[in-house]
């Protein structure tokens, strides 16, 4: 009906405006004035739909965090084999590298996450950690008593993905001679992510066989 207010449309515009503002101005530029101006929505609508500005940011972060969505989309049997777990972890990290590399908005969000304490980001990280811990627990039997820490391997790889992409985005040059803007080097990074996971599983298998 003409003139009828559409709450879902205004909610969507406000959430999208948070992402656009984050991309353009960074997390320091995320203000109520900038977001509502970009969305073309009045400030009272933020309080009506989200209770407050933090509620809007929380809705944006919850919808944007790629890890939680990815964890929820994983299709693993109730009792996955070691090979299934290994391949799942390889694909997960390779997919994350591809996604993070091409999504500037997500890069800004992670930069915000690691730059300052924010209760909203902390809650998102804790939720992500809980989901990730469930996946790592499935592989615990393979690594138990091996002296190989899959958790440490995953932490290094995830941190490496974040830093390499953010380093590249800052335009400060290559990392150890690798330029991920180059298709060949990008493919090499994907291959190496898979190799590191393979090596970790193999090292645990060898250690447990002795």
Strand content: under 5%
Characterize the overall form. Answer: globular
Mean pLDDT over the residues: 90
Distance between the termini: 74 Å
Structural class: mainly alpha
Poorly predicted runs are none
> What's the structural domain tally?
2
**Rg (CA only):** 20 Å
State the helical fraction.
over 70%
Counting DSSP H or I runs of 4 or more residues, the number of helices is 11
What is the number of strand segments?
A: 0
Order of SSEs, N→C? HHHHHHHHHHH
Largest sheet: none
Give an overview in words.
There is one protein chain. The longest helix is centred in the C-terminal third of the chain and has 27 residues, at 183-209. Helix content is 76%, strand content 0%. By secondary structure, it is mostly helical. It has helices at residues 7-25, 32-39, 43-50, 53-64, 66-73, 82-102, 104-115, 119-138, 140-143, 150-169, 183-209.
């Amino acid at each position: 009906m003409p003139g009828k207010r559409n709450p879902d449309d205004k909610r969507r515009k406000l959430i999208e405006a948070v992402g656009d503002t984050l991309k353009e101005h960074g997390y320091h530029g995320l203000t109520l004035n900038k977001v509502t101006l970009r969305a073309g929505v009045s400030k009272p609508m933020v309080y009506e739909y989200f209770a407050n500005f933090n509620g809007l940011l929380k809705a944006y972060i919850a919808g944007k965090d790629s890890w939680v969505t990815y964890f929820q989309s994983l299709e693993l049997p109730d009792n996955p084999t070691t090979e299934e777990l290994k391949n799942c972890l390889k694909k997960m990290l390779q997919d994350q590298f591809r996604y993070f590399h091409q999504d500037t908005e997500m890069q800004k969000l992670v930069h915000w996450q690691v730059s300052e304490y924010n209760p909203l980001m902390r809650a998102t990280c804790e939720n992500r950690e809980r989901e990730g811990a469930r996946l790592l627990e499935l592989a615990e039997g393979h690594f138990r008593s091996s002296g190989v820490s899959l958790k440490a391997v995953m932490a290094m790889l995830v941190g490496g993905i974040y830093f390499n992409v953010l380093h590249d985005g800052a335009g400060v040059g290559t990392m150890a001679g690798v330029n991920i803007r180059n298709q060949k080097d990008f493919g090499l990074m994907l291959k190496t992510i898979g190799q590191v996971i393979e090596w970790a599983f193999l090292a645990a298998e060898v250690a447990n066989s002795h």
